[in-house]
Amino acid sequence: MQLGLIGLGRMGGNMRERLRAAGHEVVGYDQNLEVSDAASLAELAEKLAAPRVVWTMVPSGKITEDTINQLAEVLEAGDIIIDGGNSKFTDDAPRAERLAVKGIHYLDVGVSGGVWGIKNGYALMVGGDAAQVEHCKPIFEALKPAGEFGFAHAGTHGAGHYAKMVHNGIEYGLMHAYAEGYEILKASEYIHDVPAVIKSWREGSVVKSWLLDLLDRALDEDPELEALKGYADDTGEGRWTVDEAVRLAVPAHVIAASLFARFQSRQDDSPAMKAVAALRQQFGGHAVKR
Question: By its UniProt entry, which InterPro entries does this protein fall under (predicted)?
Fold first, then answer.
């Protein structure tokens, strides 16, 4: 099957290679023309036979919106645009409606797998109409891991990005649980080899996971994590998940707490904790550090 693929960075470039290894023809476009198969979006469209399928893997927000708008000018009725970036789910239905005016179909796909997806496959969560999902099934089958897991037609437009949003919210909580456990082990006078303990959990333990494997890998490379600063950014999905929990009145204690912990990581000296220290001193005469 033919596919146009826009954005050949860490994710998109690896996806191109995995698809080609499965026998698909991929025409890639990137602003870095050294890795691009086409010099422009118009040339990319010319190289694809109708009905075209073009998948975007570019940063969410204005870049995605601009790319899709530009694509709509060079594609034709019956073509399909797939957004595989981390767009907010509320963008998808309006986007699908605008494209439908031109007769262009739209799918939103949440993609998980990171830089390891080229080898292990990608988990795919798809939103959109069943006919277009079925048309693109050969591409999805090549990208997903072998076996029965790794793909879901999650629902209508927006469902793919909604599912990926919740996936990333869960990821926040899981990562922070491992991080807190690591810090407790590191602070304890009983534990003399923290990396060995983490490694012992990789098999036979109910907390085994790919994230744990990656923590073990990081500790192999830097046992004290000395090369890293305790700062963690967030790319939006955690915030959106908490927003949805509030909208739906769903208690999401772990995900919310892990998101706020990331905010705290950006403060060298927390004003809130200064206020806590001041209050403890005022009501209880507790010692403070100055």
Answer: 6-PGluconate_DH-like_C_sf, 6DGDH_YqeC, 6PGD_dom2, 6PGDH_C, 6PGDH_NADP-bd, NAD(P)-bd_dom_sf, Pgluconate_DH
Q: How far apart are CA 290 and CA 275, in angstroms?
A: 13
Q: What is the pLDDT of residues 213-223, one digit of tens each?
A: 999 999 999 99
Active site residue 244: no
Beta-carbon contacts of residue 157 (< 8 Å; ≥ 6 apart): 92, 93, 95, 96, 106, 108, 127, 128
171 noted as active-site residue: yes
CA distance 201 to 216: 9
The residue from 17, 171, 199, 244 that is catalytic is: 171
**How many domains would you assign to the chain?**
2
**Do 209 and 250 share a domain, yes or no?**
yes
Per the residue annotation, which of 88, 144, 164, 237 is the catalytic one?
A: 164
* CATH number of the domain encompassing residue 117: 3.40.50.720
User: Domain range spanning residue 241?
Assistant: 166-271
Please tell me the pTM assigned to this model: 0.92
